[in-house]
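User: quick one, fold this
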Amino acid sequence: MAKKGIMSNRLKEEIAKELGFYDVVEREGWGGIKARDAGNMVKRAIELAEQGLAQQSNRQK
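Assistant:
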């Protein structure tokens, strides 16, 4: 049974482009990326989420 991803495909693609491995995704799919790249993608997604929460918190003050 496949799990539904939390990140949208659009966000994953944007992060992969930013981190420089989107060409691998285009050629081989998400299963073709290295574990390190997947980890870096998750780390970047967390950073973006934290930034979004900080901005939201600042707007509420």
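User: anything notable?
Assistant: The chain is about 70% helix and 0% strand.
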